[in-house]
Structure formats: C-alpha cells, structure tokens
Recover the amino acids of this structure.
C-alpha cells in the first residue's frame, strides 16, 4: 500500500513550496519527494474532508495569509483562492472544520486568531478575528503569540494556544464563523502553550509547553469548554541542560500512547497513557536522527511515524509497536527541504 504525505516547508533556502512524498507500507520506505505546488513559506497545511482541496499558509511580497489549492489529476495542485493581508506576517497554523466549512488560522507574530468561510469551490472569506493581549515571564513572551487553533472533540468549541500569554482560549464558534470567548485556561508562568491534542475519550487533553519542554495533562469540561491542570511531565531527561524547545504532539486512536517532539534534544518522546487518560509516563526517548524535528505524524494505520526536520532538510521513518508504543528506526536522511509540517492524505 502506498500512502501519500504532504510536506509544508519554509522557502528561505532550497524549498519551493509544498511537496508530496509516498510511504510504501510494504517495503517500509519513504520514496523521493516531489514538488506539487509553488508557494512562499507554506509552513502549515490542512486538507478538506473531500481530500482534494489543500489549505496552506502563504507568504508573498505583499504580506502573509492563506491559500487554497485544488488537486489536479496529475497530482499537482492549482491555486484557487488566496487571501493576503498587506504587510502582515504569515500565519503559523491552519485547521479545517468540515461541519461548518470553516478554516482556522493563528498568527504567531501578531497574536491573533482568524476564521474563514469556504464555499463549495474552496474559496475563502474572512469572517472573524480575535486579538490576544498580554505577556509573561520568558524572553519569548513579550506579547501574545497565538500558535494553535482547532476543534474540541464535541466540536462545539475551538481551542487556541497562545505561547506569549501562557493561556489557552476556548471559543464558541457559530455556523457562520463567529467566535465568542467561553473560557480561558492559564498555564504556569513561562510554560509557552504551543500545541494541544485531546484523548479519544474527550475528557482530557495534552498540552505542549514549548518553553518548559513539558507535557501538561489537562482535564476538559465539555459543558464549559474549560481546562484544569492534572499532571505535568518533562519531555527531556534531567541531564539535558542546553537548549530545547517542545514542538508537535500526537495521541493514538486507542488512547494508550502519546508522542511529542523535542527541538534541541532532537528526539521523539513516547508516553504511556493510563486507562482513564489522566496520567502519562514517559517510556522512551529516541533520537529523531535529524536537526530540529518541528513536526511529525502517525500514518493512518498508526504503524509508522514520520518526522520532518526543519534545519537538516531530512525526514525520518519509524515503525511503531502497537502493543508497547515503542518506536524503532526504519529509514533516515530522506531529503525534504526545510520541512516543518507532515500531513498524511
């Protein structure tokens, strides 16, 4: 079986945009990456439910924004819509809401979250923007830095992580793409909330503290959209005293294992989750075999895990043991320029 992966990138060096690479699950190898769409700094990607429209971060000479691409029969992509805000920095995250035909983005540099309505052809119309305000104790927290925004499991809310304010904002979202603040969670000072993923039972979430290299286990109150801290676990060993920055986080569909990536320590941390979902234990730290593992993803079968390295232009392929959760190296040094997002079709 061949699984298609789309790679989001920076285009500051050798990259020209969005790339496609195939994972052959029979040979357990990644094949050669190929360019499928030329675009500036498509650092995050989201596929529509129809799987033929791809939404991507976009940067042009005028500013930053978001673009929509339609997949052609030859597997390349044609740009069908692009909204650029003049003199603005490009967003850092994109998510697609199939129920409401909405797209969510976050602005790290300017500290706001945005919502776009999409039509049947994938075209985009801005419907709402919420500006975050505040700061915290770390030197990277001089102002708001919105980093992630996506739906809660009940799909009644969207949750936004803000690294700069040490807060997680929960918004009620309407059918026409309007946001209304429902709850705010405040992490410990200096945590730097980056990304968040929910347990399949919908009762708990796992928050990446980018600045503290921690995973914070949160209890989720679906009635209010609120969170409270349950547990905090380090993603790196105590012996690592030089720079590290937490990045991506994923949970398995059976709710038994959690994975996170470390930039600096350049590793993937593996955690066992207890039966209820409210406690995790780190059981493995494995080298990512590259520099700056900014993103990774489990394939649809969850037998494989693919890591993208921003600084070394490489992908690494791991095999996952479904019973133990542990990873083993299959392939490394697969060329993928400036890769910062890994998205399976």
């Amino acid at each position: 079986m061949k699984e298609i992966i789309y790679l989001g990138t920076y285009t500051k060096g050798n990259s020209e945009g969005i790339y496609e690479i195939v994972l052959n699950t029979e040979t357990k190898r990644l094949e050669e990456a190929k360019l499928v769409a030329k675009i500036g700094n498509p650092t995050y990607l989201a596929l529509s439910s129809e799987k033929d429209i791809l939404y991507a971060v976009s940067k042009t000479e005028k500013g930053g924004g978001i673009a929509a691409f339609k997949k052609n029969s030859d597997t390349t992509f044609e740009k069908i819509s692009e909204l650029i805000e003049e003199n603005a920095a490009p967003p850092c995250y994109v998510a697609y809401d199939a129920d409401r035909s909405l797209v969510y983005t976050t602005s790290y540099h300017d500290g706001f979250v945005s919502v776009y309505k999409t039509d049947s052809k994938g075209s985009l119309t801005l419907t709402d923007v919420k500006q975050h305000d505040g700061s915290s104790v770390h030197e990277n927290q001089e102002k708001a830095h919105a980093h992630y925004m996506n739906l809660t499991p009940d799909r009644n809310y969207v949750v936004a992580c803000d690294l700069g304010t040490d807060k997680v904002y929960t918004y009620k979202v309407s059918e026409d793409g309007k946001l209304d603040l429902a709850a705010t969670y405040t992490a410990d000072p200096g945590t730097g909330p980056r990304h968040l993923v929910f347990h399949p039972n919908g009762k708990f979430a796992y928050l990446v503290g980018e600045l503290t290299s921690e995973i914070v286990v949160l209890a989720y109150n679906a009635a209010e959209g609120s969170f409270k801290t349950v547990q905090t676990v380090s993603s790196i060993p105590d012996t690592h005293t030089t720079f590290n920055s937490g990045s991506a986080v994923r949970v398995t569909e059976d709710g038994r294992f959690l994975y996170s990536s470390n930039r600096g320590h350049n590793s993937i941390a593996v955690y066992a989750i207890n039966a209820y979902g409210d406690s995790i234990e780190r059981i493995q730290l494995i080298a990512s075999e590259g520099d700056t593992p900014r993103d990774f993803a489990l394939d649809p079968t969850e037998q494989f895990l693919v890591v993208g390295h921003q600084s070394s232009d490489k992908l690494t392929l791991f095999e996952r043991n479904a019973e133990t959760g542990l990873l083993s190296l299959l392939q490394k040094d697969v060329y993928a320029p400036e890769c910062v997002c890994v998205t399976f079709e």
In short: The chain has a mean pLDDT of 96. The radius of gyration is 19 Å. The first strand starts at residue 2 and ends at 9.
